[in-house]
Amino acid sequence: MDLDNVFAYSTPRFVKIRDRRLGMLNTLFKFFIFVYVVVYNVILLMGYKVQGDVVGTARLQPRAPDLKYLRNSSRHRYCMIDGKNRTYTSSDGLIPDLPAFECRYLDTFDTVYPPVEAQALFISTRVNDTLQQLPPNCTDLPRPSCRYETTSVETYFVPGTELVTLLIDHTMSVPSLDFSKSSLDMTGRIEYTNGTEVNPCDAYTRRGYLCPTFANGAGFEITFGTQDAADIIALDTLFQAADVRSLDERAGNIGKFTSETFRYAGIVLIVTVNYDNYFSYDENKVQYILTSKLVPDADFKAEEINPGPGIDETTRRIIDRHGVRIVITQGGKIGRFAVSQLLIVLVTSMGLLAVSSSIVDGVAMNVLKMRHIYAQYRTVTSVDFSDIAAIKQSDLNRFVAEDLVNPRPAIFEQVGQGAGGVTSGEGQPRQMTSAPAPAKQAGYYGGMGPASGLVDEVDDVDSDEGSGTTGTSVRSPEIVAWGENPAAASSAPSVRMKGWKRGFPSSAAV
To answer: Where in the cell is it found (predicted)?
Structure first.
């Protein structure tokens, strides 16, 4: 049993295959991997950042429209005129003969219910005001028959809801990254559902008004997304962002909504604020985008019960409100540089390089015409190093400067001569003056590669290996390669050749 075979060690071999097709394919793969990892993932997507979950707070504070933005009831199609009944058609023309109701101009203290909500707001557009009274002798509800009885019902619209202004005060925080900002420290914008930007002043200019500013005498200024300034917009801006052109459109496409308007049934808007610090390489710069989305076929109402007029407890007042429900959600993409995240990206790139190398290897070993030649270069079995343990140091030194393990195959010399000469590694023609050695010679060094056996000039033949002449010697081709049978090699005749020494070809001979 040969222990060198049993405990043979396998190690990767780096082979330089001088074939432009494989080299160009490999370079192309590496180029695309570089573009994907470095340019796209690291530079453009900032893949070196680690992300955290965004949490936040938001407060909506409404303000009633100024008087100059409110029109008389007679100019609203949904309002009764002088208490006279009339009908109107929805603004989209889909619902005819809608009944008009009385209109009352309420301030925000009467239209907003409840007064304070976290992340939400409700503004009334239609109110049913019902007065109920208990029967006599039912003050303490002593009998099952003691039930409140309706004595009067009033229904009215609240005009001017579209131009109610909203102060949107919001903050964001990423606890895992120890990162937080308020709306005053960030910039932002409002976007339509198609991604284009909404101009907050359009809510006024499309009605023929100037956009409110302190300069033109308004007590407030419409502004949004400006650093160091509060976000103040009209409610109609959120309607525009959600593609709701008017509250007098049909409320939905199913059930009762086909015969009701948004003003009558109510409307639900989901307002989303997304924060982002990936638009700039300065991690402390954050921008936010506000979007508004309509919840289809949904209404909203809130009921409020108050004591009725008088000093007794036998009456109550039920205020049934329908209107605009706004719910704010917050999220986004906030990240900070992390070495661990960068290492993950780089390790991924190494995996992609390995995949590309495997693809090129597959093409080389299975597709191209010279795949069998590539395979022989790729997989090599070494000599039995126990058999050559006595190699001299002078011979070992030759391996530093010369390629003695992988001599050029003789068949390539023949092909090269037939094609007009073989080129060297530097691209210069190599002149060959002799024929290859017999095929029986397995190789220069124990079969590690096929021997070319090429020589430039033969001086003489001498059986004494230590004769001391200037020429060097190699074993006769009839003897197996040196290292396979040292005993036989020691008694074999030698041939003196220029540029040869102890059976190893010099660089000039390959």
So the answer is: Endomembrane system
Q: Torsion over CA of 62, 64, 65 and 67, rounded to 10 degrees?
A: -160
Residues 6+ apart with CB under 8 A from 297: 251, 252, 253, 254, 255, 257
Q: Are 329 and 336 in contact (CB under 8 A)?
A: no
3-state secondary structure of 59: strand
Exposed e or buried b per residue across 446-481, where buried means at least 16 C-beta atoms within 10 angstroms of its C-beta: bbbbbbbbbbeeeeeeeeebeeeeebbbbbebebbb
State the pairing for strand pair 267-276/315-337.
Answer: parallel
Task: Please give the pLDDT value at position 154.
Answer: 95
Q: What is the pLDDT of residue 422?
A: 46
* Residue 44 burial (CB count, 10 A): 10
Are 91 and 248 in contact by the 8 Å Cβ rule? The answer is yes
Residue-level pLDDT at 150: 93
pLDDT in tens, 272-294: 999 999 999 999 999 999 999 99
Rounded to whole angstroms, how far apart are CA atoms 472 and 480? 19
Residues 503 and 505: their CA atoms lie apart, in Å, by 7
Domains and CATH numbers, the chain: 1-48+338-379 (no CATH), 49-337 (2.60.490), 389-510 (no CATH)
Q: Calculate mean pLDDT across residues 171-186.
A: 95
Rounded distance between C-alpha atoms, residue 66 and residue 163, angstroms: 9
Under a CB-based contact definition with an 8 Å cutoff, are residues 331 and 54 in contact? yes
Rounding to the nearest 10 degrees, give the CA dihedral for residues 157, 160, 163, 165: -70
